């Protein structure tokens, strides 16, 4: 997805571009805004957008000066110039600075999206050129182990494109007849603790040590290539292969290897781990199936029976687990925290875990899902109380650890400790928010817009007034009224426009000014985009309707 930056001092124009741009079709995932040239330059340097749309006449720094800076600092950046002045000097400077397109105000949907499409096409073309260059030079710029890792990952993720790469499979011996391939998965349960005590908090160093143990423990005839899973910090993936025997033989030998590695890792480094094995197949493209099987076995290990020891998952446990609902208990926990009773909230959490502990089994995968659900539910609760996003971790271990929260668990007792730490973190946030005076109500914003719709309304005004984040205000307003703040301003203006146009004594220019538009043409464009007809066409239709009635 691409990122676009709009630099213009007229907020209605920025809103119009936001509304008219066909962002989803153009694969634009984020649209940023800056209100003047200086702020635009700061955002260029900070956010590195893929494409820029900029006005030529702005405060702080004009378009001509900004174009020259962009040409020097961002020579590859596509720029679409917007101007209300059909001035040859602006057009000439835009062309000198390799501007992609030059649009005159007021902007219309077709011209805007044609210019944006031109920019996206240019970006796609450059991406394709870079991809082709990388493909041609990959064997020169990447070591063989890294290339093998990339290849195995593409097979495991089912993203390998045979037609696009005819030669890479020979790197892993796929040309040999009778060669079997399978996957072993290892999950390090005490990752943070062992990293801190044995590897100077360096997870890459730990992964290197695990890979070395795999290599040293491998027997003659069985090849094993191991690497860290880039998507799962705790996981190591080992692809095993062998030739000259049948599938059962290689599966047996790989299983022995996995058990030896798990034992040796604990003896050497104190690593507590759980392993899983996938069945081998002659076609390396079946590695995805083998990986999924191995991973299911890892996450099927019963945490209630693990008790802080390493283990190898032998079965694919697909039984349905009926555990009490966490969601149903969150209302009680929320009520306890709002009343300042943190002890009661902790007791409710402990009672919930006790019920889980009394079940027949509770897998590692179930524990992961429980912690993810806990963070998601607490984040929702915190948002309801106006807690700023920066105080809330995202689901996932890295984010939790960034807030100083424990994430290691190799037994159910340790899972209880992780659960309690997360609950305590959110308890402090929510109790503090609940005890703070909250004078804000989204109706305050609505009332202000209803009475000041003709002014230049900015969300930053409300954020500063109520000491709340821009994102929280926007979300709360939309939840309560069904519109975004800017959408609601536009709606009110258009509703008022219809009433004013009913009065033939008022000119369109006068109505435009009464609604807060600086330019009659821009008002006409906005009206057409909203109702599908210009103000004049709307009045003509009113007259015709009146004549028919008479």
TrEMBL record:
UniProt cross-references to InterPro entries, sorted A to Z: CheY-like_superfamily, Homeodomain-like_sf, HptR, HTH_AraC, HTH_AraC-typ_CS, Sig_transdc_resp-reg_receiver, Tscrpt_reg_AraC-type_HTH
Subcellular location: Cytoplasm
Main location as per UniProt: cytoplasm
Example of a GO MF term: DNA-binding transcription factor activity
Keyword DNA-binding: yes
Keywords: Cytoplasm, DNA-binding, Phosphoprotein, Transcription, Transcription regulation, Two-component regulatory system
Domain Response regulatory: 3-120
Domain HTH araC/xylS-type residue range list: 443-541
Pfam family name, one: HTH_18
GO biological process: phosphorelay signal transduction system
Record-listed 4-aspartylphosphate modification sites: 55
SMART domains: HTH_ARAC (SM00342), REC (SM00448)
Transcription regulation is among the record's keywords: yes
Domain of life, source organism: Bacteria
GO cellular component: cytoplasm
UniProt-recorded name of the protein: DNA-binding response regulator
Organism the protein comes from: Paenibacillus antibioticophila
Organism classification: Bacteria, Bacillati, Bacillota, Bacilli, Bacillales
